[in-house]
């Protein structure tokens, strides 16, 4: 019999932050339902609610007409909801064989007898593998899971989730580590599970996969389902719902600035193994926006230019001179600064004051010889606070205590104050309120106006339109459009982003 | 209704204040309290000579603990300091007793040996990427064993019979022995060294670019790197400094013992790590710092001296050290509303 899992008005709040605002969703057995949403839309929270990790959620979960309480992960599993998380390492137990991993839940719950040997559990393991049409032989079953390739590990944790015959199987980005042929194999396994009546919730950023596997598509944005479709999907419509068409129309329209002088020349840079190399030049005097979905290679470009990650391909030059940063300090010396994507993990130091946080990259200028210049540091911080209208008690306030938007102003301001030749902002508007967003936009534009090169990386069209003069659309590690905003349209940008390979 | 809320808020506010006060001054209050109790009840304890000898005997642990503090600042921990201090004792004895070299030269060699061990630690941690605790644990054993190799596993004392049957030509020089015995006015030289090194470490860590960056590396290495800091170099320097401080402590110890005792320094590790840990909770700073380490060592010195004078058996010392440490950790972890920042990542 095919089951149905119904979510009725699911809400979930963290403190004052309402992440899920009433999600209604039906997942039928024998169908693959794809869940699409940008970062911060609430996807992982929803998955965690269904996995039993957030028992204090609001709303009801109904399985086959019966209301259930998902109190713990164990209860959720017992009720037939299995989740395969994005990170493979969380799903396998290194040091054990494939067979033991496959039956791990049974072993852990003492269903396999007290003393177990591989030979003893082998028949059952083989039976499970056969029922999932995996042609794994005994030799394979005896392997340590560490010897397996990523694709086999992924199949293993999938198989493990299926041992208990789930009613609902949640797959969170199951292909992020797989190659194209491995993805194809996985798709076949998923189809055969679907045909056996399992309901599948498929979470992915890869539109081509969703197109190939899903029967239904739901779009989550800001904690609410914004759209539902059945095959064939209208991708432009779905992307619009995902990225928000109506939001923030009130941001003031920008006066276009075009630069003529090339600052940074990138030649033959290859972002991924499977993508083709490309060349690109970034000009002074304009804001270049790079837009792409998660995994399109935005952060990789930023880190290559800033020297934050090892770059194996391509050649770069700044105004004719070779530019080969091996460490961020090399880039900083040439006036190339970066505000990284995740400010808490990449820009902030717990319990550090605004003054110390903002002065860190420029301590040499702010010191007398080796000795710190506390007053120079403080007055610099005060100027940043004033210039970017940071809401804070003063330069001594701890950065942790500020709101997200003000934290972002601080980490942007610390680089702006250093007079960048080129400024890279990776997702500068994430988790930031409208006021801070406007401030950061204006600062970026006036920086470009004063002759610097500015590169903004984002996955949201509205953010792009609110800050950039020129747009580069990145799809799977390659630029697919390079144009001035005034010479293209929102529809074209979204269209290219949503192009299904 | 709102009255009740206001009342509850007020109560919470008072509770927070008491808690913060306790975290900030509790430790110092305990130190002063214990000191006063010993001083009031024991006449021997309050004599200046007792106090100075207490400071002198504490200075070695305190100096080694200062080195540990540097490694804790960069988010690590150096477990090899005890064996480095022991190495210092053996090296200085070898230099002076077996090779009949000058005290000054021996002292320099001891510092070089400490720096070398520190550099090897740093190499293992920074370039071979072995977690701090494990790398320095390995080095602890290596150094402990390796130092016995040239002395055939024996303590080195003057007039000992050497491998080739001859008598050791040298002895600990008077100048070298003066490191521990000399006085600066009424104050023993080791105490002066302790004070000078504490001030130096405090200045380095809190008043210079170098110290600021060290704390950045310890607090968030990724963010430090993205601020343009060569994180590896700073972690390297912390272990070299730790080796140098441990060797300095060992130098004073060697001068005090006057022979190459092979077991010297072995007990220093736990004491030194303990005082550095205790130091993080002094004044509620919640991170490793020079004056905290000095005060931590002082408190442990007071407790041990006091208990000894009161006639407690020797094993009461370990119990009391442990209690002081646990108390300090309660201040940092349980009572402090800041998150403690000195747990090394392994």
Structure characterization notes:
The complex is a heterodimer of chains A (501) and B (346). Chain A has 2 domains: 4-243, P-loop containing nucleotide triphosphate hydrolases (Rossmann fold, 3-Layer(aba) Sandwich); 262-497, Rossmann fold (3-Layer(aba) Sandwich), CATH 3.40.50. Chain A is α/β, with parallel strands linked by helices. The two termini of chain A are 36 Å apart. Chain B is mostly helical. Chain B has one domain: Orthogonal Bundle (ABC transporter involved in vitamin B12 uptake, BtuC), CATH 1.10.3470. Chain B contains 13 helices and 2 strands; from the N terminus they run ααααααββααααααα. Chain B has a two-stranded antiparallel sheet. In chain B, helix 3 (81-98) packs antiparallel against helix 4 (103-127). Chain B is globular and about 90 Å long. Chain B starts with a helix and ends in an 11-residue tail after the last helix. Chain A binds chain B through residues 306, 308, 327-329, 331-333, 338, 340, 345-352, 356, 360-361, 363-364, 367, 370-372, and chain B through 207-210, 212-213, 215-216, 219-220, 222-230, 286, 338-339, 341.
């Amino acid at each position: 019999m095919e089951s149905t899992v119904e979510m009725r008005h699911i809400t979930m709040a963290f403190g004052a932050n309402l992440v899920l605002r009433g999600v209604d969703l039906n997942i039928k057995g024998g169908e693959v339902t794809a869940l699409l949403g940008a970062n911060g839309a609430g996807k992982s929270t929803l998955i965690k609610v269904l996995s039993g990790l957030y028992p204090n959620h609001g709303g009801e979960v109904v399985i086959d007409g019966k209301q259930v309480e998902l109190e713990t992960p164990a209860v959720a599993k017992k009720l037939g909801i299995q989740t395969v998380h994005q990170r493979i390492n969380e799903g396998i137990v290194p040091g054990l064989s494939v067979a033991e991993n496959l039956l791990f839940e049974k072993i852990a719950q003492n269903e396999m007898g007290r003393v177990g040997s591989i030979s003893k559990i082998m028949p059952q393991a083989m039976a499970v593998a056969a029922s999932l049409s995996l042609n794994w032989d005994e030799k394979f079953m005896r392997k340590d899971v560490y010897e397996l390739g990523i694709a086999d590990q992924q199949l293993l944790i999938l198989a493990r989730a299926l041992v208990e015959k789930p009613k609902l199987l949640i797959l969170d980005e199951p292909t992020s580590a797989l190659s194209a042929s491995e993805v194809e194999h996985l798709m076949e396994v998923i189809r055969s599970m679907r045909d056996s009546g399992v309901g599948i919730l498929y979470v992915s950023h890869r539109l081509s996969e969703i197109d190939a596997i899903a029967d239904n598509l739901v779009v989550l944005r800001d904690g609410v389902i914004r759209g539902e479709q059945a095959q064939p999907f209208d991708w432009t419509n779905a992307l619009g719902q995902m990225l928000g068409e109506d939001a923030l129309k009130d941001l003031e329209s920008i006066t276009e600035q075009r630069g003529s002088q090339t600052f940074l020349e990138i030649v033959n840079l290859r972002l991924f193994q499977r993508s083709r190399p490309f060349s690109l030049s970034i000009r002074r005097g304009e804001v270049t926006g790079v837009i792409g979905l998660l995994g399109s290679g935005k952060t990789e470009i930023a880190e290559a230019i800033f020297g934050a990650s090892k770059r194996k391909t391509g050649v770069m030059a700044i105004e004719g001179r070779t530019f080969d940063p091996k460490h961020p300090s090399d880039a900083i010396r040439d006036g190339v600064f970066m505000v990284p994507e995740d400010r808490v993990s990449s820009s902030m130091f717990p319990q550090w004051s605004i003054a110390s946080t903002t002065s860190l990259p420029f301590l040499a200028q702010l010191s007398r010889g080796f000795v710190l210049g506390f007053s120079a540091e403080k007055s610099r911080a005060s100027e940043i606070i004033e210039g970017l209208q940071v809401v804070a008690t003063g330069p001594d306030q701890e950065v942790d205590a500020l709101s997200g938007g003000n934290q972002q102003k601080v980490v942007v301001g610390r680089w702006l104050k250093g007079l960048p030749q080129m400024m890279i902002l990776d997702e500068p508007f994430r988790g930031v309120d409208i006021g801070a967003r406007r401030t950061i936009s204006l600062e970026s534009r006036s920086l470009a106006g004063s002759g610097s090169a500015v590169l903004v990386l984002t996955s949201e069209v509205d953010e792009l339109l609110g800050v950039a003069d020129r747009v580069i659309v990145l799809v799977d590690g390659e630029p697919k459009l390079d144009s001035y905003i005034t010479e293209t349209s929102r529809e074209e940008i979204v269209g290219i982003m949503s192009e299904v390979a | 209704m709102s009255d009740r809320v206001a009342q509850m808020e007020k109560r919470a506010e008072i509770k927070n204040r008491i808690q913060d006060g306790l975290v900030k001054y509790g430790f110092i209050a305990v130190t002063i309290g214990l000191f006063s109790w010993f001083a009031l009840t024991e006449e021997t304890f309050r004599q200046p000579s007792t106090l100075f000898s207490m400071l002198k005997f504490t200075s070695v642990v305190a100096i080694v603990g200062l080195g540990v503090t540097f490694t804790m600042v960069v988010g690590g921990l150096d477990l090899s300091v005890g064996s480095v201090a022991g190495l210092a004792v053996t090296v200085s004895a070898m230099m002076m007793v077996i090779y009949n070299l000058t005290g000054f030269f021996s002292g320099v060699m001891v510092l070089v040996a400490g720096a070398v061990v520190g550099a090897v630690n740093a190499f293992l941690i920074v370039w071979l990427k072995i977690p701090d605790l494990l790398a320095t644990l390995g080095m602890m054993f290596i150094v402990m064993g390796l130092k016995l190799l040239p002395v055939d596993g024996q303590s080195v004392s003057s007039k000992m019979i050497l491998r080739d049957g001859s008598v050791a030509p040298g002895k600990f020089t008077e100048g070298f022995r003066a490191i521990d015995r000399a006085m600066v006015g009424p104050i023993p030289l080791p105490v002066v060294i302790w004070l000078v090194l504490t001030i130096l470490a405090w200045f380095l860590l809190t008043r210079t670019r170098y110290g600021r960056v060290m704390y950045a590396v310890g607090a968030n290495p990724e963010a430090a790197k993205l601020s343009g800091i060569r994180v590896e170099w700073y972690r390297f320097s912390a272990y070299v400094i730790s080796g140098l401080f441990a060797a300095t402590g060992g130098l004073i110890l060697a001068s005090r013992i006057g022979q190459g005792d092979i077991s010297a320094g072995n007990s220093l590790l736990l004491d030194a790590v303990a005082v550095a840990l205790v130091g993080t909770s002094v004044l509620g700073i919640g991170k490793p710092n020079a004056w905290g380490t000095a005060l931590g060592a002082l408190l442990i010195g007071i407790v041990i001296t006091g208990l000894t004078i009161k006639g407690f058996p020797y094993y009461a010392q370990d119990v009391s050290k442990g209690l002081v440490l646990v108390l300090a950790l309660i201040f940092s972890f349980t009572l402090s509303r800041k998150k403690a920042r000195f747990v090394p990542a392994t």
